[in-house]
Design brief:
Helix content is 24%, strand content 38%. The chain has 7 helices and 10 strands. The chain has helices spanning 2-5, 33-43, 71-77, 125-134, 200-207, 217-225, 235-243; strands at residues 10-11, 23-32, 47-50, 58-66, 83-91, 96-104, 110-117, 143-157, 162-174, 180-193. The radius of gyration is 18 Å and the shape is globular.
């Protein structure tokens, strides 16, 4: 994978400032590492790969927060038109960390707001004030629920109207019950674009029979590590993900 990425033209973090897409439409796909290689071969002529400090396969660590009643998980499960995710994330290649709030509205658009933090410990007043200002939840009650780690490839199309994030080696750890699940052969691809702009990736993914599969990594991790949770509405997607093979 690393050798293949070295054939791509690169784009720096600074050059990506025009592709922040904080108010966007997201489409997720699930595939395998073998199909990802085929996709990366197809996409070479249309995309840059993000490179930071000479690296393009970048490690991430994320902790999601929720209420004691897991209201954010349940809002995703029940398909609420307005739903939120609150997470703390470290971009390990440069050591920066943020607390982020993602809000998906009833028009299918996702807005993300964030502030920089020192570490992934939810114990500071400025963090709670930020969450209170961006969500309807009582920020003082939020607790860490699920953490994940993965390595990410980020592609940017030549027109700089979209990003593709490609997550590999996904590992979930449930911080409430200690359960851990790994997805070593699965790849999560997320297309992020400003509105319904034309995307060269969609036809490529379709040709490789990689189908859209909408879900939240937060909800997926909670469902996989907490079988006692309500997850009827996720069963079809979980079954689809489990049957995908390299």
């Amino acid at each position: 994978m690393y050798t293949l990425l070295k054939t791509y033209p690169t784009i720096t973090l600074d050059e990506m400032k025009d592709v922040r897409l904080l108010n966007r439409i997201d489409t997720k796909y699930v595939t395998t590492t073998s199909r990802l290689r085929k996709f990366l071969l197809l996409a070479q002529g249309d995309y840059y790969v993000q490179e930071i400090n000479g690296e393009s396969l970048l490690p991430y660590h994320t902790i999601y927060l929720d209420t004691p009643a897991l209201d954010m998980y349940m809002a995703h499960h029940d398909g609420h038109s307005q739903r939120y995710k609150v997470r703390m994330r470290t971009y390990e290649v440069d050591g920066t960390s943020f607390i982020e709030v993602k809000n998906k509205n009833n028009h299918g658009r996702t807005k993300k707001k964030r502030i920089e933090i020192d570490d992934l410990i939810y114990n500071k007043e400025n963090m709670r004030e930020f969450v209170s200002s961006k969500t309807p939840y009582d920020a003082k009650t939020l607790q860490p629920t699920i953490e994940n780690s993965f390595r990410r490839i980020t592609l940017v199309n030549k027109g700089k109207t979209e990003r593709l994030t490609i997550d590999l080696g996904l590992r979930f750890h449930n911080m409430l019950n200690g359960e851990t699940k790994e997805m070593p052969d699965h790849v999560i691809v997320e297309l992020k674009r400003e509105g319904l702009v034309e995307s060269p990736a969609i036809a490529m993914l379709r040709n490789l029979r990689i189908q859209p599969c909408g879900f939240s990594k937060m909800a997926l991790g909670m469902a996989m590590t907490s079988p006692e949770l309500k997850q009827n509405n996720f069963k079809e997607r979980l079954h689809y993900i489990r049957k995908i093979k390299n």
